[in-house]
Amino acid sequence: MLSREENDLLTRVGPGTPAGEMLRRYWHPIGFAAELKKRPLKKRLLGEDLVLFRDDAGKLGLLTLRCAHRGTSLEFGHIEDGGIRCCYHGWLYAVDGRVMEQPGEPPESNFKDRVRQRAYKVEELGGVIFAYLGPDPAPLLPRWDVLVREDGVRARQGRLVHCNFFQMIENSVDQHHLKWLHRTASTPTWDDGEINPQPFDYGIVNTYTRRVDGKKWAHVNYFVFPTMNKTGNVEEGHPTEHRASSAGEVMRWRVPVDDTSSMHFTVEFGAARDGQTVKIMEDRSEQGIVDTKHGVYRWDDSIGWFARADQDRAAQESQGAIYDRSTEHLGATDKGVILLRRLYRESIEAVQNGRDPIAVVRDPAKNEMIRLVPHEDLLD
Ligand code: FES
Ligand SMILES: [Fe+2]
After folding, report:
1. Ligand 2 is a single-atom ion; what residues have CB below 5 A from it?
2. Does residue 20 belong to any structural domain of this protein?
3. Which position among 162, 167, 170, 236 has the lowest Cβ density within 10 Å, counted as fewest Cβ atoms?
């Protein structure tokens, strides 16, 4: 159980909040390369309203949304003349936030040199666009395997979830829910098993050991700071299959839009086997971050319950917009949740003491490709 203050500490993400400042030390996905065409896109990340665009030379830009002149949204701006031009009175901004033109101001005026739109760093990797909203020097954008591998197929999807990000990341360290929330006809044959979360360089290694039809299996996956997990490699028909199983390797990000909504990004990579492409999810990155309706979950007649894709969202959104943890009752199966909260508090403290939090990548030698291999092992 957490006090109201402890709950606020972990869940508030705006500028100046302890978790918000800690989260600003990392790169976060903000959109997909395929959704960003000619039109600028309105985005919201960590409680800040932003505009994402490419200038006419193809350079990515991420600026605060409202024009420094009189506040019109730059999502309606024109991409021209080397920047984004506000639709209202034509101020022209470069991707770095410089004001290049202020039509109507006297030619001798230096007014434009005294105004600047706040600009953030933005990079593209594996078809995903990442943003960094924190102080300089920015760390490296981590080159996670699913984003950089070229020996197979990659797919991306994104959607909006209407609750605080922290209840979403608690789900990723909660191994017990695989048996229940994602139950199939075979999960009742599992015993209750053993849950063992341990810290590692990038976050938490989760090991879930249980007996299935008389055999002992260990399921290993990763929580990766600050908002991700890496799962996969449990295929359909496997004795330990659950409804969240996947043949490919999957990384998911739960990115705070603000305190009460989150972007859920999924990138799946399926390595080719014997020269054959493996079947993975469909790429829907062109659709961008698809909205969902709070409280509405797709029913799947074939399983007689909510569809796999909506099961976690139903569990998480129904905890409340920001789950009030002063009413919870944690049990033995919640070890992962407890460890996650501890690592979050330590990371917040690290930032408050002028240090990097866990898993910030600054060494290029460690960033060629960061490989994490989830697995399901037969123990005896
Ligand atoms: S409000 Fe943008 S140019 Fe006036
Ligand atoms: Fe789940």
Report:
1. 244, 312
2. no
3. 236
